[in-house]
Amino acid sequence: VDANALRDHLVAEFRDTVQPEIVHDLLTVTVTPADWRRVAELLRADGDLACDFFDYLCGVDEEAAGIGLVLHVYSTRHHHHVQLRTVVPREGGGVPTVSDLWFGANWHERETAELFGVDFQGHPHLINLLLPDEFVGYPLRKDYPKEKRQPLVRRDDLPMNPMKKEAP
Amino acid sequence: MDSQLKQLVLGRKDVQDLSDTETELPPDLMTVNMGPSHPAMHGTVRIVLTVDGERIVKSDVQPGYLHRCFEKESEYATYTQIFPYTDRLNYVSPMINNVGFAMAVEKLLGITKDIPRRAEYIRVIVSEVSRITDHLTCVGASAMELGAFTAFLYFLKAREWLYELLEKVSGARLTHSYVRIGGVSKDLPDGWIGELLYTLGEIDKVIVEVEVLLNNNKIFRHRMAGIGAMTREDAIRTGCTGPIARACGVDYDVRKDYPYSVYPELEFDVPIATTGDCYDRYLVRVEEIKQSIRILRQAVVQIPDGEIIVDDPRVALPPKADVYNTIEAMIRHFKHIVDGIKVPPGECYAFVEGGNGELGFFIVADGTGRPYKCYCRSPSFVHLSTAQALIRDHFIADVVPIFGMINMIGGECDK
Fold first, then answer.
1. Where are the beta strands (DSSP E) in B99-203?
2. Which of A83, A97, B134, B373 is disulfide-compatible with A120, CB 3.0–4.6 A?
3. Taking residues B309-326, what's their average pLDDT?
4. In what order do the strands lie in the sheet with B30-34?
């Protein structure tokens, strides 16, 4: 399906809540965190969109604006890519999980949670994936210094969930 | 026998407990640690298995032991300096990573159409050689883990021939850093194509040898067929690509569905299987090796003469003769190395067919010589997330072929 037709379809569906635009041949839909789940469900279920293939989900530190989230999905039926974007606040920001819609989002959300400090509400198993439980801070944020080193001291009393950790 | 030792090893107190008359196994579940230092755990990954006898009821897959902060390092490196990092993502087929990253930056620069055709052909040739090395390693290592050591040695022998060829092109056996934004760094050496064609002929023979050894080998088939099967729907909603998805019947190959470079000019087939088990993954990989050889044979005939890097002062380094003899070229060279290539602000996602599947780079540029954000969509990461479901209800011994055929590459998965 043509990216322009898709954009018109999304605008008709959501009127003013979404801002679709086409960047480098890729339809990018920017939504508020509150609409994240609703638009994701539509992308998954709508017959004209039918984005059944999960590509990736990642974070982008947008400094003062907050932490950006990028979800990229693809339709194996219509052969189109759609990118969903939102920005959540730096402190305590989060969106509902989409891991029940696309199983592939499960690990991507865990990775984004530990590296950027974004909560994915309703995620079944939101614990650290790449980092040790003792790690303090969110290393892919721009304010985390690249040279910073942390000694790994094993502790047994830590909550496993990266969102429940104390701030650095 | 020392009963204390026996208790330690077997959890039983008395020698009588070990008598043959006892037929019942202990009824409670047991936790077994597999990895991170286990010969079958490619790279490093730890799996905590909860087993009922030999059967796996629960597992926790824990990657991260090879996390080298690719994304964070990239934000502090110029675009050209990122190539060595991409080499170390999938270190079995670094050339494809190089090409994928270069394509993402070229898309942002808007010079995708301007890449010289000779450079495009060289990229395709080195990518396909890399794809063969990737599949040879995966199939050979998996066969070895199942006891077929001969097949492993045959395939590694063939892989070494290809590494030698890549070494002649790039100067490095494994971490090539050969591709540059806008083209490639060096032209093919004299006589290289003849050597490649000779090697491909030898590899044909090796593949026949290994297929005879493995395809109808009773042990190999029993260990692979019906093990770790995945449905087409599961593959799609997880985001599986590459040989794993094609073994389940997902007809998706980036080279065909989103043709890039000069792939539209080359004739090849995409092998598809139906059952999605380990044996089908093996068959798809072997067939892909044959298709890559087919692509290479066409590409070396069609490759034109000409430039190997785009003629654009923003992107390409000036010729060395100018750098040493003119002040303008000297300054350009200096600015290029120190400040990097200025990429206009914007964001894009470019993806290629890697050895394991769709390998993509999502780059956010802010107008400087360094990316603001460089995310790598690594197929191994996605594939490893399915491992937990794939090994459930299998035996511990089945973890080895399932893992071998997922072909999780630590560097690519953990980034």
1. 179-180, 183-184
2. A97
3. 86
4. B30-34, B46-52, B55-62
Please answer yes or no on whether B64 and A129 come within 8 Å at the CB atom: yes
Determine how β-strand A94-96 pairs with β-strand A119-121: parallel
Distances (CA, A) of A87 to A27, A62, B346: 17, 8, 17
- pLDDT, one tens digit per residue, over B121-157 is 999 999 999 999 999 988 998 888 888 888 889 999 9
Find, in chain B, the residue whose alpha carbon is nearest to that of A56: B377
Q: Which of A76, A132, A140 faces B252 most closely, judged by CB atoms?
A: A76
Question: Alpha-carbon distance B210 to B203, whole Å?
Answer: 10
Tell me the whole-structure pTM to 2 decimals.
Answer: 0.86
Which residue type occupies B117?
R
Residue in A23, A29, A43, A55 to test binding to B, most B beta-carbons within 10 Å: A55
What confidence score (pLDDT) does residue B110 get?
Answer: 86
Q: Return d(Cα A117, Cα B141) in angstroms, integer.
A: 38
Q: How many CB atoms lie within 10 A of CB B314?
A: 14
3-state secondary structure of B249: coil
* Residue ranges of E strands in chain A: 19-23, 26-30, 53-61, 67-74, 81-88, 94-96, 119-121
Sheet strands (E) in B135-264: 179-180, 183-184
CA distance B211 to chain A (A): 33
- Six-digit token string for B226: 């019906």
- Beta-bridged to residue A19, according to DSSP, are A30
Mean pLDDT over the full length of chain B: 86
Beta strands (DSSP E) in A3-161 are: 19-23, 26-30, 53-61, 67-74, 81-88, 94-96, 119-121
Inform me whether the C-beta atom of residue A41 falls under 8 Å from chain B C-beta atoms: no
Tokens 């909603």 belong to residue: B237
Contact present, B263 and B352 (Cβ < 8 Å): no
Rg (CA), chain A: 17
The identity of residue A162, as a single letter, is: P
For range A123-145, the mean pLDDT: 85
Query: Interior CA angle at B225 toward B219 and B230, to 5°?
Result: 150
Hey, of A56, A70, A77, A83, which one would you mutate to test binding to chain B, going by the most B CBs within 10 A of its CB?
A: A56
Determine how many CB atoms are found less than 10 A away from the CB of residue B87: 24
- Compute the distance between CA of residue A111 and CA of residue A124 in angstroms, rounded to an integer: 14
